Amino acid sequence: MSPAVITLLFLGFAVVMFVMEKIPLAITSMIVCIGLIVTKVLTPREAFNGFVNSNVILFVAMFIVGGALFETGMANKIGGLVTNFAKSERQLIVAIMVITGVMSGVLSNTGTAAVLIPVVIGIAAKSGFSRSRLLMPLVFAAAMGGNLTLIGAPGNMIAQSALQEIGLEFGFFEYSLVGLPILVVGIIFFAFFGYRLLPNTHLKDDGAFQEGKDYSHVPKWKQKLSLVILCATIIAMIFEKAIGIPLYVSGCIGAIVLILCKVISENDAYKSIDMQTIFLFGGTLALAAALDKTGAGKIIADGAIGFLGENASPFALLVVVFLISAILTNFMSNTATTALLVPISLSIATGMGADPRAVLMATVIGGSCAYATPIGMPANTMVLSAGGYRFRDYMKAGLPLIVCSTIVSLILLPILFPFFPNK
């Protein structure tokens, strides 16, 4: 059996396992990584190269920096600002989406949702509004906000790593060229139309999620310092080229300062690191390497090009790439979707002579449209029970949001990231 066929079989296995999630995503990723070594498709050095990627270091550092904001209660305090200027239900929805969207742009979108869920449930209890009307906009905003910066979501960094392998990259705020309009349109949609699609489930308060963690014992200076260091780290990342310090080094400096100042303990710093993301990221980079090395990626790309026809328009290619990402992401993890499609999209770009940055941008933005099912992203699952939602509730409110995101993307992507910029 040729290495290309073996790689395609592992790709098929990954697709099925990512969709079914019968075993953890990280384990699936590692099975593929180890399998490629055992079958001699990749050498151990090639297969594990993804785990020493600079972006893995960035992930770890930002998990700790973000973890300090959560552990000190500063993230909770930021979320609690909603009650100061939002009185009606629609105002609350807008305020929750704005704050969640902005926070998830610079922190883990899953972590942002996790810390704000009890805050929003508390707001619902005090205001008398149904929590089911507030929690779904929260997780949708977390998904959209992930596209505001390079560090907003794991998928963003997966695409960045693939680009860096061929000497290209995205800027820190480049995803926001499309991501910010999507977030703005999404908020406007829910403010004027979408709120009518939200379920109105009245749940008994069973104590779950009712009370958030007590942060009264946390010194004020720790809360303020966690925010100052986060802001300083982000500023350093924005001006990476001007100061000559790589993103991951700035992240490490922020994490080290937080631990040395005892804003976050060493144990809590370790706990804040999402190892599933690390193993998923490193393992799928091995698959990407195999697709490139064996030519399996080119086989897929040739098949996609053949399906579209030799004279397919750039817009047709954009639509196909975007829709595949948007559909898959609702039936498997959004991070897994991006990890799976990035190497394939890169092969398609190479095969057609298209701009890799444009194809990967379409892949990442499409992969973030995980609104229509409770399994599209971890935050969706987290509010399933708390909001008393059913599968069809996500479809009812999420599908129109996908349509809005798709329209915005298909208007902006050809303008800002044309597939064939020189034609």
What does this structure look like?
With 423 residues, this protein is mainly α. Helices cover 72% and strands 0% of the residues. It has helices at residues 3-20, 25-38, 44-48, 54-71, 74-80, 82-85, 89-106, 109-127, 132-145, 154-164, 176-192, 220-238, 240-243, 247-260, 266-272, 275-294, 296-308, 314-328, 334-352, 356-367, 378-386, 391-416. The longest helix has 26 residues, at 391-416. It starts with a helix and ends in a 7-residue tail after the last helix.
Short description:
The protein has 423 residues and is an all-alpha fold. The chain is 72% helix and 0% strand.
Secondary-structure-derived class: mainly alpha
Supply Rg. 21 Å
Helical residues, percent: over 70%
Shape summary: globular
Present the secondary structure layout.
Elements: H1 3-20, H2 25-38, H3 44-48, H4 54-71, H5 74-80, H6 82-85, H7 89-106, H8 109-127, H9 132-145, H10 154-164, H11 176-192, H12 220-238, H13 240-243, H14 247-260, H15 266-272, H16 275-294, H17 296-308, H18 314-328, H19 334-352, H20 356-367, H21 378-386, H22 391-416
List keywords for this structure.
423 residues
